[in-house]
Amino acid sequence: MKKVIVAVAISTLVLSILGITMLYGAIYFLPELMEEYFSPVFRPAGKNDWLFLVHPLILSIALKWFWERYKSIFSGPLLLKAIEVALVYGIVSQVPVLWLTFGAIDISLPMIGTWLVYGLVQSFAAGLVFAKLNP
Amino acid sequence: MFNAPYTEKWVIERGSNLCIEGRSNINSFRCDIKEYLQPDTIYVTKDRQGMKPFPVNGGLTIDIKRFDCHQKHITNDLRKTLKADEQPQLKIRLLDIGYYNGNANNIRGWVSIELAGITKKTVVDYQVKHDQPDLLLLNGSRQLKFSDFGLQPPQKLAGLIKVEEELTVKFQLVLRALKADTNRLVPKND
C-alpha cells in the first residue's frame, strides 16, 4: 500500500508540474488560442477551483489502477511501456471524451487538440513513473 | 461686472472616443467605444481672475455593451465582469479641470466615475488642445483597478489564466462650442 501511495504521490507531483508547464508554454507559444479560456464555457475561478486542481491526482489514481491491472501486457523497455500507456489512455479514454466535448460544447478544434496533447504527455509521464517504481 | 464668472457650453462630438486598456497573463487588450453618440453638453465655468481650476458640469454616459475589445471572449467576459446586465452604463462626470489658456499639457482635473453601481472621485491628467475658438480637444487618462469598483478581474482555470487588476481608461473628448453664455452663475454639480 505504501508503494502505491508513494507512486501516486510522485505521479501527482510530476503531472502537476507538467500540466502547469504545458499551460504556460501554450500561453507563450499560442496566445491567441489560449484567449479562448476567457470564453463563458469555462468556469470563472472561485469555490470550484479545487475540482480543476485535483485533476493530476485523479488522473494518477486512475492510471495507477490501470497500470496495476494491465502491466503484465506491456513488455519492452521503460520508454516503450510509457508510450503504450499514453497511446492506450489517449485512444481509449481521451479521443471519445474529447469527441463528445467538441460535439456538445462551443470549443475550437485546436483547443481540443491541446487537451489531447496534454493528456498524452501526462499519461506518458505517469507511465514512466509507474513502470519505474512498480514494474 | 467685467470680471464675473461666465460659462462656456460645449457639446461632445461624435469623433470622441473612450478606451480601456488592460493586460491578462496571455495578452494585452484594448476595449474601444468608437462612436460616442449621445449629445451630452459640458459646461465650463471660467473666471477671468486668477489661474484657478475651471469648474465643469456634465460628462459622458457610455453603454458598457458597446465596448469592443477586438477579442470575442475578452469582450464578453469583460462585459460580464463590469456587470453590464445589471449596471449597463459607465458614467464619467467632469468636476473640474486645471487652468488652461490655449494648448496645454499635464493639466489635472477631477472626475467622478460611476461603474457597476459604485462612484469614485479621482484625478485625471489631461492634454488640452484649443487651437480653434469653437473646438476643444480633451485627452485624458487614468489608471484604475477593478477593486476600486468592487469588481474582480476575470480569472479562469483556478486563476492560472487571469486579467490583471490595473486598467487604464483613456478618453478623447472632441468638444464643439455651442455659444458663449457670459455672466451666468456657476452651474451646480449634482
Mind explaining what this structure looks like?
The complex is a heterodimer of chains A (135) and B (190). Chain A has one domain. In chain A, 78% of the residues lie in helices and 0% in strands. Chain A contains six helices and no strands. The longest helix of chain A has 28 residues. Chain A is globular. Chain B is mainly beta and 190 residues long. Chain B is built from one helix and twelve strands. In chain B, strands 1-4-5-7-8-9-10-12 form an eight-stranded antiparallel β-barrel. The interface between A and B is medium-sized, with 20 and 19 residues.
Quick summary of this structure?
The complex is a heterodimer of chains A (135) and B (190). Chain A has six helices and no strands.
CATH homologous superfamily (4th level) name of chain B: Lipid/polyisoprenoid-binding, YceI-like
Which second-level CATH architecture of chain B applies?
Beta Barrel
Q: Can you summarize the main beta sheet of chain B?
A: 8 strands, antiparallel, barrel
Task: Give Rg of chain B in angstroms.
Answer: 18 Å
End-to-end Cα distance of chain A, whole Å, is: 15 Å
Secondary-structure element string of chain B? EEEEEEHEEEEEE
Please render the helix and strand layout as text.
The complex is a heterodimer of chains A (135) and B (190).
Chain A (H helix, E strand, L loop, with lengths): L1 H28 L1 H4 L14 H5 L1 H16 L7 H27 L4 H25 L2
Chain B lengths: L5 E7 L4 E8 L3 E6 L7 E6 L7 E4 L1 E5 L8 H10 L7 E9 L6 E12 L2 E15 L2 E11 L9 E2 L4 E21 L9
Antiparallel strand pairs in B: 1-4, 1-12, 2-3, 2-12, 4-5, 5-7, 6-7, 7-8, 8-9, 9-10, 10-12, 11-12
Question: What distinguishing features does this structure have?
Answer:
heterodimer, A: 135 residues, mainly alpha, 6 helices, 78% helix, globular, B: 190 residues, mainly beta, Lipocalin, eight-stranded antiparallel barrel, 12 strands, elongated, disordered C terminus
